[in-house]
Write a structure and sequence with these properties.
The complex is a heterodimer of chains A (636) and B (110).
Chain A lengths: L2 H23 L4 H25 L7 E9 L5 E8 L1 H24 L6 H20 L3 H19 L6 H32 L4 H8 L7 H18 L8 H4 L5 H9 L3 H10 L1 H5 L2 H24 L3 H21 L3 H29 L4 H5 L7 H15 L5 H16 L2 H26 L3 H14 L11 H19 L4 H8 L13 H22 L13 H8 L4 H7 L1 H39 L6 H24 L2
Chain B lengths: L2 H22 L3 H25 L14 H31 L13
Helix pairs in contact in B: 1-2, 2-3
């Protein structure tokens, strides 16, 4: 076994080992469990970092695979690792974000009765995602794809004793499952055509003159995209993600940045040549992504729950990544995935600090609880929002610029205009969130100040920070520093992901960049006028129209539509199945059981315990036997 | 009707009387006695058939075989042993349940 393979195995199995030990043996010892999970993830992080360095030379990649169950001549089950810049950098991002979330959670989840279980699930999540990222063939990808879904189900429903998280977990699981059906079919189609669907083989087969026909490619790409749409919360299947906010905030940070939703985008980047070989499907994806980006941006503009704002912004940014990929630039889409992982984790973790402090998700309530006392949270929120909006030195600017460049080079003017509009809306809603959270409202400020004075000694100033809360602050500050650095990765990634593609310099300010920056400034300005300045109305332009506010605040009524149609049909089907189960299946089983019992009762009458009765029967039977034998003997 | 048939008839009668007694009497001792009757019927059969119906009587020597008598003697020994075991069992049963009526000994009822 070579060094890279060993490191890849270490990166995957260190979290798994931690998960197993924590869940089996350490349920009652939360501190040890957290330490072990963090140690496992740190090992994974170190191994991933080594891997990134090992394949950092452009054009270099490793593929190691072992067949463990041959099925027939062409097909077999195999597991392996595929290491190139795409998979190793993603593994690094996954382990880094998971590690940050684990450290942060020592403070956020302190004292929770399920603390050890929580860390076990986090480690499980880390393992599943690392396995997905490093997997060498599509069957393996599918297995880890489902494991990622399982881990997010467990974590969203972590507080399962309450109704809302349990329902949100179910919704997330079932809704992504709808897309996963397509994913499964797509993988099976590719396996049927190609045998062992190793990822480089699939890519080679999709090239012109490869083993796949254009039709097969289109069908497979469309089917795989169904899974991507479910997992990455796009188009009609996005409504599970806002509901998933019921989970603990650090889980949201993990779910929204490097794991779960990132899996879909990562898959498209991984199999990008295959998708590019199906231009019609890509055109559809481009439009779907644009529609999703704009629609969820409007939803983020009216939400008052800080986590919901962030959730909608995630969907919108994922749509941007898919836009970049659909426009043909794997670098742009993947670059945005990496930078987004950094700043979205940062945003959620900062929001978590406020939520932890104010015990409320509502931005207006947080504003009333002296939010600026949480210095790390405030810095993180502003830095993260600047990155999300695309303000120039922050990471989000560079990656979004790359995407807009790719869309401009590929699409029509209309597509580009819509993408720019989305960027402006992003700036608007992210700074609406900043102003709503950090600027005390005119009337609310004095009220909050008065309440503060009343509390006196029990108020925030007397509060000493625990080590856990200090860990939260440090994590946020580290991530905030990262948002300033990650943006310069673009050219480095570009050279290695797609050698030969034109590399854009980070500070190359063309017309496109200037237009984007002007739009971002306009968005932030509008947010300032409506929410930030002294005496601002603190009501957005969308919220002024009640019908629109309701429409956007309720997921564009998509959930209502689903409840009225699909959910109702499914419930009716379930009731029919239940009747069938209760009456037909259970009836048959009960009949067999009752018949057996009754027959036994009847037969038991024969065994009356009286020896003489048995003797009589025996004698009669012997007589009958003798008679029969006699007849046989006489007959010839 | 040959001489053998009379012997067989007596044996059948003995056997049926024994069977009737075995089934009808409720006392274990009476049942044991009936069982002995049935054994006696079988012994009689063996002796009668080997002595009168040929069997190995028609062997080369033409002498009447004594094999039947040997079997009968063994059967008597078996009956004696069986009686000893059965009677000691009855004593044990009497001590255990204060009765040797078979109708009281129906614990294995289904």
């Amino acid at each position: 076994m070579t060094g890279p393979t060993l490191a890849a195995l270490l990166a995957q199995f260190a979290p798994l080992a931690a998960c197993a030990v924590v869940l089996v043996a350490l349920r009652g010892r939360p501190r040890t469990a957290a330490a072990l999970a963090i140690a496992g993830m740190a090992v994974s992080f170190a191994a991933s970092a080594w891997l990134v360095a090992a394949v950092a030379v452009p054009g270099r990649s490793f593929l190691a695979q072992t067949v463990f169950l041959p099925v027939d001549q062409a097909h077999s089950l195999a597991f392996g690792v595929l290491l190139d810049t795409l998979s190793t950098t993603m593994a690094l991002v996954v382990s880094a974000v998971t590690l940050a979330v684990m450290v942060y959670s020592t403070g956020y989840m302190a004292g929770d009765p399920g603390f050890a279980r929580y860390y076990g699930f986090l480690a499980l999540f880390g393992w599943a995602m690392q396995g997905l990222v490093l997997s060498a063939n599509l069957l393996q990808t599918l297995a880890f794809w489902e494991l990622v879904g399982l881990a997010s189900f467990l974590l969203i429903g972590f507080w399962f004793e309450r109704a809302a998280p349990a329902a949100a977990a179910r919704k997330a699981f079932i809704m992504t499952r709808v897309g996963d059906v397509g994913f499964l079919l797509g993988v099976l189609l590719l396996i049927r055509t190609l045998g062992l669907a190793t990822i480089p083989d699939v890519i080679a087969a999709a090239a012109p003159g490869g083993a796949l026909t254009g039709r097969t490619i289109a069908v497979a790409a469309a089917l795989l995209l169904m899974g991507v749409i479910g997992k990455s919360a796009q188009g009609p299947l996005f409504t599970w993600l806002p509901d998933a906010m019921e989970g603990p905030t650090p889980v949201s940070a993990l779910l929204h940045s490097a794991t779960m939703v990132a899996a879909g985008v990562y898959l498209v980047a991984r199999l990008h040549p295959l998708f590019l070989a199906a231009p019609d499907v890509m055109r559809g994806l481009l439009w779907l992504a644009i529609a999703t980006a704009l629609a969820t941006a409007t939803m983020a503009m009216v939400a008052t729950d800080i986590k919901r704002v962030l959730a909608y912004s995630t969907i919108s940014q994922l749509a941007y990544m898919l836009m970049g990929l659909a426009a043909g630039s794997v670098t742009a889409g993947y670059f945005h995935l990496v930078t987004h992982a950094g700043f979205k984790a940062l945003l959620f973790l900062s929001a978590g600090i406020f939520i932890h402090h104010a015990h409320s998700n509502d931005m207006r309530e947080i504003a009333g609880r002296d939010p600026r006392a949480q210095r790390a949270g405030a810095i993180g929120l502003v830095a993260g929002s600047a990155a999300l909006a695309g303000v120039i030195p922050f990471a989000g600017y560079f990656s979004k610029e790359a995407i807009l460049g790719a869309v401009g080079a590929h699409g029509t003017t209309l597509v580009l205009a819509l993408a720019y509009a989305g960027a402006a809306l992003t700036a608007y809603y992210s700074f609406r969130m900043v102003f709503l959270t950090l600027m005390p409202a005119g009337a609310g400020a004095t009220e909050a100040g008065g309440a503060h004075g009343g509390h006196g000694g029990t108020g925030a100033p007397a509060h000493r920070r625990t080590p856990g809360e200090r860990a939260m602050g440090v994590t946020v500050l580290v991530l905030a520093a990262l948002t300033l650095v990650l943006g310069y990765l673009g050219p480095w990634l570009g050279v290695r992901l797609l050698p030969g593609e034109a590399v854009r310099e980070p500070f190359e300010l063309g017309t496109g960049a200037l237009v984007a920056l002007a739009l971002v400034a306009a968005g932030i300005g509008l947010a300032w006028i409506e929410f930030g300045r002294a005496g601002a109305p603190r009501i957005g332009f969308l919220e002024r129209v009640p019908a629109l506010a309701r429409f956007c605040g309720d997921n564009w009524y998509l959930d209502r539509l689903y409840r009225a149609t699909v959910v109702r049909w499914a419930a009716a089907l379930a009731r029919a199945a239940q009747w069938n189960d209760r009456t037909v299946v259970d009836g048959a089983t009960d009949g067999v059981a009752n018949g057996t019992v009754g027959g036994g009762r009847l037969l038991a009458l024969v065994q009356n315990g009286n020896v003489q009765a048995y003797l009589t029967v025996a004698a009669l039977l012997l007589a009958a036997l003798a008679y029969a034998l006699g007849r046989v003997a006489v007959a010839p | 009707m040959s001489q053998l048939h009379w012997y067989l008839l007596v044996a059948v009668l003995l056997f049926c009387i024994g069977l009737y007694g075995l089934v009808q009497r409720r006392s274990l001792i009476a049942m044991l006695i009936a069982l002995e009757l049935m054994l006696a019927a079988i012994s009689l059969n063996v002796v009668a058939i080997t002595s009168l119906a040929g069997g190995d009587a028609e062997s080369a020597t033409g002498n009447v075989s004594s094999a039947g008598q040997v079997v009968a003697v063994i059967l008597i020994g078996v009956a004696a042993a069986e009686g000893a075991i059965a009677l000691s069992l009855f004593v044990a049963i009497q001590r255990e349940v204060q009765s040797i009526n078979v109708e009281d000994l129906s614990e294995l009822k289904g």
